[in-house]
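Below is how a single chain appears once it has passed through the pipeline. First comes the sequence as given, then the structure the pipeline wrote out for it. We keep one example in the README because the format questions we get most often are answered faster by looking than by reading.
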Amino acid sequence: MRWQGRLRGTGPRTPLSAAVPVLLLVLTACTSGAPAPAPVPSQATAPVPSRASERAPGTHWRPEPGTDWQWQLSGRLDPSVDAPVYDIDGFENGAADVAELHRRDRKVICYLSTGAWEDFRPDAGKFPASVLGEGNGWKGERWLDIRRTDVLEPLMDARIAMCAKKGFDAVEPDNMDAYLNPSGFPLTADHQLRYNRLIARLAHGHGLSVGLKNDLDQIPELEPDFDFAVNEQCAQYEECDAVTPFTEAGKAVFHAEYELAPAQFCAESRRLKLSSLRKEYALDPWRETCAP
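Resulting structure:
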C-alpha cells in the first residue's frame, strides 16, 4: 500500500472528497455479508511478550535520530541520491541493486507488505482464502487475518528471508495497524501487538533491523521491539509527538509528508529530531529535504 489516499492509520491520505469512492466500496463490502472468519487457533490470540530484552545490545543496525534517507518505491531505482539510507521495494529490486547502494555506502531497507495481501506479488497464490479480508482501498490488496499466525508466520518468514538473501540491512513492514481499519476480521489491539512483535522477531532472526510503520497508538508498547520507525503525515495530522519514544531511545524516525511544504513541518521536525522528507504520492526518486 503506497503513494495515494488510504484509510486512517495506514499511510498517505487524501482529502475526504478523494476518499469517498474507496469508503463507499468498503461500506458496500461490509454490508454485503463478508464470510465469517475461519476458526483461529486459541494460541494465536494469546499475548506475546516483548522479545527486545532477549537480544544482545548492538546486534542490529540502529539508525540515529535525524539520519537522512531516501524513500523510492516506484520507477527505475536512482542510486545517486545523496542520502545514507535508502528504503526500496523488496520484491522489485534485486541483489545487484542492493549491492550498488552498498557500494555507495548506503544502508538499504526492504519494503514489504506484512499486513495485507497483494495479488501482484509472486507468492500471492500461497495465501489461503481464509486469511484474506476486505480490500484496503488499493487495487489488488486485501487485509490479512493477522490472528492466523499459524498460516502467516512461514509466509512472512520467507519474505524476510528473501530480503536477507538479497543483502538488505533492514525491513520496513507495511500495513501494521489493521486493527484500526475495517479489515473484515474482529481484530483487537492485542492481536496487532502480537503480530507486530512476531514480524520484528522474524526480522531479527534473519539478522535484519526492523522499523515500525505508523501504528502510532502502540508505539509506547512496541518501541523496544523495533530499531527505528517509519511515519507518514504525522505533521499534517498533528501527530508527531506520538513518535518521540523512538527518538528519545536514540532511534531514527523516517518521516514523509505529501501535502505540506517543508516550511510547514521542518522546524517541528528539527525540534523532534525526525528524519523528514517531502515526497510525491508516487514515491519516485523526487524528494525535498529539511535542509540545515
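The longest strand covers residues 107-113.

See the next section for the split statistics.
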